Every structure is written in C-alpha cells, then in structure tokens.
Amino acid sequence: MLTMRKSVIAIGCLLTVASLSYAGSDWLKGSTEEQLKKLAELQPGLGTVMIEYGTRFGILYHSAKGGNWDFAAYQLKEMREIQEVGETTRPARAQALKNFESTFLNPLDDAIKAKDWKKFKTAFDAAKDGCNTCHEGQKFGYIKYELPSASPSPISSKP
After folding, report:
1. Is the CB of residue 13 less than 8 Å from the CB of residue 37?
2. Quick check: 55 and 152 in contact, CB under 8 A?
3. Are 75 and 63 in contact (CB under 8 A)?
4. Cα–Cα distance between 47 and 116 in angstroms, integer?
5. Do residues 147 and 65 touch, judged by C-beta distance below 8 A?
6. Signed CA dihedral, 139, 140, 142, 146: sign only
7. Which of 4, 47, 124, 159 shows its CA 20 to 30 Å from the CA of 58?
8. What crossing angle do the helices spanning 4-22 and 32-41 adopt, rounded to 10°?
9. Is 130 exposed, middle or buried (CB count within 10 Å of its CB: 0-12, 13-18, 19+)?
10. Higher confidence at residue 21 or residue 130?
C-alpha cells in the first residue's frame, strides 16, 4: 500500500505528464511510458534529499535544546517524509534508510515526546554518529555531518 507521500508523488508525476503532453511540450516527447521514465529520471537523488534532511536535523537539535519540543517534533516528522522520498526515488538505498529510521529516529521521537533533553542529546549524538557511519558504509565517507553552532532556521528555537 502506498503511503500518502508516495501517492502524492505518483499523482503529481501523472498530472505533470498529462499537462505537459496536453500543452504540446517540446522536451517531453514519446509514449506515456517514455514520458514517465523521463520524469522519473528528474526526481531528486539522495544528495538533494540529504541537504534538506541535514538542515532539518540541525533545526531539530536546536529546537529541542531551546525547549521548542513542538517544533522539534515537526522537524522529525518532515525528516521521515523526506526519507520516504529517498526510499521511493532511490530504492537501492531504501533498506539503509529504513534501518536508520528504526535505529535512530525512533529514539529521537521518544525523547521529544518525553521532552527530555538528556535523553534527546544521547539519541541525537547516536543519530549523528549513525549518519556518518552510514555514509562510510555506503561509500560516501567524505560526507560527515557536523552540527551547526546555531539553528539554520529563521524560526525561533524557543517556544
């Protein structure tokens, strides 16, 4: 069964194909199958997805540190949705992403729900190390996450 996010992506692609085909687009030619393949090739890779993921990861930390647990919970929810995009568009990486979620995001979620900074900090540090270990294991060891000293968000980290 498709998740809501995956359904929206699929519907968006189909609507895009339909509208571009109808508009007589010059760049999107061929059968519907060929057009879908071309659109699928344009979907973001993990490099693009991970930029947003990393930004939200920093916002998550600073929000929890500032006591804005609701904003931290929102960032975590968005991180899970971003991860679904990566799992869908890059299925070869799906299992690693799912493992990361169960191993590291779930404990962060528990700490956020408990509004427990100490538990959160422990879970965050483990997740940060998990990011870098995963990158190593996926042959992207040159990508090392470092927590920004201030929140990358213009929205207050404090409640």
Report:
1. no
2. yes
3. yes
4. 32
5. no
6. negative
7. 4
8. 120
9. middle
10. 130
pTM of the model: 0.77
In angstroms, rounded to a whole number, what is the distance separating the alpha carbons of residues 23 and 147?
Answer: 45
Instruction: Please give the structure tokens belonging to residue 26.
Output: 């010059």
Retrieve residue 132's tokens: 């870098």
Give residue-wise pLDDT tens across range 62-93.
999 999 999 999 999 999 999 998 898 888 99
Q: Please name each of the domains of the chain with its CATH number.
A: 4-41 (no CATH), 46-137 (1.20.120)
- Among residues 78, 65, 79, 56, the alpha carbon closest in space to that of 112 is found at 65
Q: How far is the C-alpha of 32 from the C-alpha of 14, rounded, in Å?
A: 9
Q: How far does Cα 8 stand from its chain's mean position?
A: 16
Report the run of H or E that residue 126 belongs to, with start and end.
helix 117-137
Residue owning tokens 């189909």: 14
Give the separation between CA 9 and CA 2, rounded to whole angstroms.
Answer: 10
